[in-house]
Write a structure and sequence with these properties.
This protein has helices at residues 43-48, 72-75, 84-94, 116-126, 144-155, 171-181, 200-212; strands at 5-15, 22-32, 37-41, 54-62, 79-81, 105-108, 136-140, 161-165, 189-196, 219-226, 235-238, 244-250, 255-261. With 267 residues, it is of the alpha/beta class. The chain has a single domain, classed as Leucine-rich repeat, LRR (right-handed beta-alpha superhelix) (Alpha-Beta Horseshoe), CATH 3.80.10. Strands 1, 2, 3, 4, 5, 6, 7, 8, 9, 10, 11, 12 and 13 form a 13-stranded mixed beta sheet that branches. α4 links the parallel β6 and β7 (136-140). α4 (116-126) runs parallel beside α5 (144-155). This is F-box domain-containing protein.
Amino acid sequence: MERRKNWTLETHEHWTLDDGVTHNIGFFRHYNDSENADEYASFQEFARMDPCLNQITAIWLGGPNNLVGYDYENLCKGTKITTDQDVESLKRRFFSRINYSAINLFKLDIIDDTGLHSAVLHQLVDKQMLLKDLDLVVMRYEGPASIDLLKGLIQNRVISHLHMDGQEWPSERMAPLLEAVIPQRQFRYLSYDAEISLSESFFTALIDDWRNDTMPQKKKLFFRDLQTTFPLASGIHRHPKLNEQLKVHLERLFKLLIFSSVTDSEW
């Protein structure tokens, strides 16, 4: 019996030395455990596959930090997405193949002229109540819909790792959302690029809760431009009762907080 395959709808911003023009190029990728290798399908190939056995469970819209000259068209069976019509075709053919309750990650790290980012973003806003367990969320700001999606996911307590890329995130809208998501027990990692001011009372309460927690959770919080005065100095601060610690790095270019076990070398 043929087994069900979970696929990633993947695109990359890509430009070649030949024409110097930036394109979005897309394909489908499935990791084959038995062969320890990626399997690729073009848009045309995926459209012909049995929808019951081939579902989309991850979305990866990659930004410009990719290899120049990488041959996505031949090595990954990629298709260029260059017009509004290309985006509409992608929506019509593939959005119905997304299994939202099985989505484990999405990355929206592009801002493009064709509307690809906007199309996927608004689809996720519409379907956000179906998203159950997101191990990784990567987002770049594109307006109020970005806030709406993030707010819904935080209220539903489904995010464990969150990367907020770019400098455009509005501090006044993001501060209450970050203060809501960071204490959640399933939440493990934050990387935040934009300027942000969180309340000093928030960090004081976060540290007090950690000190009083009998089963503290691992967390790593990275801020590129935190404007808040932190209540502890740089260094290692031990939990008063448990073999746990809080590492504080207050550098000029970043702030990093790591809540972990004393014996956990990975943290």
